[in-house]
Amino acid sequence: MPAELVEALKRKEASAFEQLIAQHGAMLYRVALRLLGQREEAEDVLQEALLKVYQNIHTFDGRAALTTWLYRIVVNTALMRLRAQTRIPKEVLDTAGPLFTDEGEHAQEVAEWALTPEAVLLRQETLSVLQQGIERLPELYRAVYVLAEIEGLPYQEIATILDLSVGTVKTRLHRARLFLRAMLADYFAERKGPSS
Amino acid sequence: MTSWGWLADRLRGWLIKVEARFCHSGHSPGMQHCQHVVDLIMGYLDDTLEPAERRAFEAHIADCRNCWHFLRSYRETVALGQRLRDEDIPGDVRERLETFLRNRLQRPL
Questions:
Q1: Do B97 and A110 touch (CB under 8 A)?
Q2: Nearest-CB residue to A150 (from B42, B74, B81)
Q3: Complex ipTM, two decimals?
Q4: pLDDT score at A155
Q5: Theoretical Cys-Cys bridge with A178: which of A23, A86, A96, B82, CB 3.0 to 4.6 Å?
Q6: B84 near A130, Cβ under 8 Å?
Q7: pLDDT value of position A188
Q8: Is residue A170 within 8 angstroms of chain B, CB to CB?
Q9: Where in chain B are the domains?
Q10: Domains of chain A with CATH codes
Q11: Do A150 and B82 touch (CB under 8 A)?
């Protein structure tokens, strides 16, 4: 029960923190890993985030779900670390979408991807390309993308976690997807080669 | 699959256009530009478009090979991202986190 877990966490019971890791550790680790891209860094951020949970659990008032509160802590901790590193300008997304003519039609032919979706989904290499693309997204686009696409959270919950409007969440998700689609399209075009 | 899929979607699109022409006069089903279609893709996948907008979107997709390819690749990008959901926390990381917290609990800040 979340309420019982929260009360046990507030009493600083060791078993409660073990339960927290058992129930929510995977999701917290996944978010940290996809935001940062490195396992060691994800583990560091997770330690830091759990320490914040330990120190601030008394402030949790139950107005939001415990998972929302946990997401917020791990995302903010990861974003702080990302901001201390090289900042990616959001202008990188300006060229993410397809090009259009003045009449609003596609300016270039949109190629069909070389692999079937089933084959694509099984390729570890494709997922690595996607992860590299995620790491090239500016921080706030990356956070929206990870929470929406990978965690599958509703737009409203993401808006609450990141203090954004739902409209901004949708716009950022769409632009992140356009950027990643373009990256994957380049990857498939290279695999296909000029002769085929 | 692609040529049959393409043909099936074209046929479906033509039916949508005929239906739109006879049942919704005043809404030209081919009204949208490719750029507009790309802007609406997320709403289309989330199923939040107005019925008339959805019909126009589908009619355009059925007629425009570039937008059809674009929609398919956008969908595949979404599906690939969702594959990253399968990541679990490694056992050694879990153990280290539990040890870390146990040490903290013995030595409160």
A1: no
A2: B81
A3: 0.85
A4: 97
A5: A96
A6: yes
A7: 83
A8: yes
A9: 2-106
A10: 2-84 (1.10.1740.10), 90-192 (1.10.10.10)
A11: yes
